[in-house]
Each structure stands twice: as C-alpha cells, then as structure tokens.
Amino acid sequence: MQEELEQIEKFNEYQLVEYFQDGVVARSTGDGFDDQLYKVVRTKLIRNKAIEKQLPEWVKNKRTIDQFWTFIKGRFSTYQERREFLWSEFSPILHYLEKKSTSPLDESIVFDEAHIHTQWQKALDRKQTEPEGAITSARTLIESILKHILDEQEIDYNDAAELPELYKEVAKSLNLAPENHQEQIFKQILGGASGIVSGLGALRNKLGDAHGKSKKSIKPSERHSELAVNLAGSMATFLFKTYQENKAN
Fold this sequence. Notes:
Helix content: 55-70%
Number of domains: 2
Distance between the termini: 53 Å
Strand content: under 5%
Number of strands: 0
Order of helices and strands: HHHHHHHHHHH
Number of helices: 11
C-alpha cells in the first residue's frame, strides 16, 4: 500500500485521472479498489482547481469506494454498461489533459483560466519546501498574465519592464486605473490591486530565489509564500476575467 501511495505522488494529472478511472472500473466489474487509495486520489483530483470542474459530478459526491459501489450498482446491472458509462464519463477530461500535455514545441500554450489555476497550484505546492521558489513563481504568474493581455491587445511594452510598469499599461487598457473612477470604494480597491502587484515584484526581489542571497538575507516562511501565491493567483484570475469581459463587449 505504501509503495502504491508513493507512486501516486509522482503521477501527473493525466496519470492520476487514468488511475482513478481504472480503479473505479475495476470495482464496478467485480475487482477491488482500496478505499484509502480511492480517497487519496479523489482528494487530489477535486483539490486541483485546473481540472476540478471537468470531473464527473459523482466524483465530488461519492467520498468512499462503498458510496461509489452503491451508486454504480444501482444505476447499471451489467459490467459492460458500467464500463461504457465510466469510460464516457472520463473521456472529456482525459482528452483535455492529452491536449494540454502536448509539447510547447508542437503547440502553443493555451492561456485560459485553467492554465492560471494550474500555475497557481504549482506555486502553492512549493510553499512549504521551497518558499523562496513559490514567491518567485507568484511573481512570474502575474508577469505572464500582464504580458499576455498586452500581447493580445497588441500593446507595445518593454520586455524587461518591472511589474508596476506592466500593470500600469494593463490597467489603462482595461479601465482599472483608480483615477478613471469616481466612486471612492472603487478607487480604493483598484489602488489596492496596483499595490499588490507592486508589492509582489518587490517581495520577489527581497525574498524570492531569483537572485543570490547573503548570509544575512531574510528567509521567508511558508505563510509568507502562501500569501504571495494566493494574492498572485487571485489577481491573475481577476485580470484575465476582466480582459475576457472587455473583449466580449
């Protein structure tokens, strides 16, 4: 059991979904799927915001292997019906992950909300063991979304520009600059958003792993990196959704 759990930790998203699919197919056709393994893999899947929405709805509701067995047994009476149902349930997400895993040399990266959540999750995964790296990843996430929005709108910018400068151009193009609004609450919130972006850039320079450190350098804790990553993820999602709405209008 321990060896199998350790192997699961090394799985990529596609392998994890495929493993779960094969496990529930086995259970629904007379073989076993250990309850602990079911729970571990299910938890990993539903906590992954990049793919959680694409999972079959019953995965979110059936928390144990016995609950799944009661569900599938009551719905279909034959093994073949159960296999075909489960294969069709997982086909869309496996197809999505197959396309997503294509090498960037073969296909351009699809920059969408799922991509943002994937990068967000990867940064969060580093917060405990590599807090400096997590902070650097947070800064990179913000920089990527800012440049993506400017590229999509064909707005010129200096590729070496710091985050505040990039954000200023994006805020101008998306009408997010505080001075463009009359209501005090919007001025305050949008001013805070600008401060977050500037702060993330400064935090990376101070605590990230992008530069060499002296012996006197401050080492960030998990809470510092978690704060930076969650701020970056929230801002990146907000900026992307704002751009998408502006584009649609």
